[in-house]
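**Sequence with structure:**
===
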Amino acid sequence: MSLPLEDYALIGDCQTAALVARNGSIDWFCVPRFDGAACFAALLGDERNGHWRIAPSQAGNGVEVVATRQYNDHTLILETTFETSGGRVKVIDFMPPRDDGITHIVRIVEGLAGRVAMRTQTSVRFNYGSTTPWVTKLPDDTHGIRAIAGPSMITLRAPFPLEGEGMQTVAEFDVVAGERVAFVLTHCASHLPLPGAVDGEAALRDTVDFWERWGTRAVDAGPYTDIVRRSLMVLKALTFGPTGGIVAAPTTSLPEKLGGVRNWDYRYCWLRDATLTLFALMNAGYYEEAKAWRMWLERAVAGDASQLRIMYGLAGEQRLEEWEIDCLPGYEHSKPVRIGNAASNQLQLDVYGQVIGALHYARLGGLDEDDAAWPFQLRLLAHLETVWHLPDMSIWEPRDGAKQFTFSKVMAWTAFDRAIRSAEKFKLEGPVDKWRALRALVHDEVCEKAFDVERNTFVQSYGAKALDASLLLIPMVDFLPANDPRMIGTVAAIEKELVVDGLVSRYNTDGDADGLPAGEGVFLACSFWMVDILRLQGRGDEATTLFERLLSIANDVGLLAEEYDPVAKRQLGNFPQAFSHVALINAALGLSRAACMAADAKSDTVGAKEGAVTPPELVF
């Protein structure tokens, strides 16, 4: 049975990823890409659905084994230390970044003290745990096995013979202090020649160098520098290197409520993330990655403006049909397990604001663009002129029908506003007067139809009583100032109606709120948005307190899922979640910037501190 999400850590090679449990078991691994079929799927079932565990032999036999773990400095190399009655041992897990179509997972076992009896246990199950492969010994002189089924081949090389046991591959071995042994699992297409052996120690050195060079480029975020760098590494690890697309998460169907049906496939790239992701990457100093994401965005949305999707595949694929896997019982029996995402066919008007806003922001940051970028945006805007007034499904993708969602209209306003700003600042040709008129029309309509005068708050949709945490983003896109009385009222209403144990829910899911059974955790990105707006409203101490509370929810290696259950004290939803980490980065940089500005203001009266630098901010 899978463990709590907090017990998992991420390793990856910028094309796919794996989740490693605290007990030494790799329980999730998709090949050859993030959205490929899992060959280790115990996360959504049990060991029979595929896993690879390396741990002390005593573990699981009633003998206490204490496990602690950390990432190696500024890298995505996981180090898990097991302490037993006989000694201590470390398991070092990583995936070397690659560009040759071959994926490797390297696991190095290092003896730290005494002698520890270890066991490795592997069961490869292709097609999300449903297909048992044909397993044979490697034909060369090395120890190991080869597993083949259909288009996939996995090899596992070990420093000593491996044996078959109950449809699994196992070995038992001792490790003494100062000894290191390496295991290498490799995936490639089954029709290719047998992949060559990998030197685990050399791969470790190369991987350390890759991540250290990448991680140390981040800007200084004061006391939050380490957690910002960790979150940036999550974004890098969730980036599909060949295209620059960033997946929302490396997993599918991790539930938003244990035992519930809110289980979705997040191994795709959402346009809703576009502006906030660019904002995080560029403000953190990662312009190369921001450019790759912007270029992915331009390629993905290219074509007929009326065919704009809310999400795309890793290379911009549009067909993401949703289907269910019957053979997997689901995480803690949360069914169904879904592959693909039917929400990709929804109309979500907010994506127009996200796309136009992201491309405007990229211009402000000096990212180069090709000659076709602006003409395509003109076509997007021309189409938006004809559809902005329609009901849609908005940012949260409910499955109960379209409404006149407030956030969708605000983002339609954002699209026209950013187009005007780009045209004026960069001398671009376009129907600016028409956009100004539409911008004013949308703004007036939202303020009239989406604002509840009696309750002094904006609401989720026109004429509704329900609130929505996406309303916290209204000041972030400059629709209204954070200290506008209507925003002060909206924040107060959200604090009263959507806050649970200090954290923010997306909206109230009770009743028939979204066409699904009631119940889910609080949404972590929304709580980070609350940090931002509290800071902007001058409530800095409250913002910092909430931010620190959110950091305490991250697991021991700094990872966040999509949601959190404040009653059970558990993370929920797909893990780790890019949206949560993007929101963390932006909130941390905002708090750090505010602290620097406050220190600079104080220094005006007591003497400026030589060399003091306020972190940069690109306002979009």
The two ends are 46 Å apart (CA to CA). The mean pLDDT is 92.
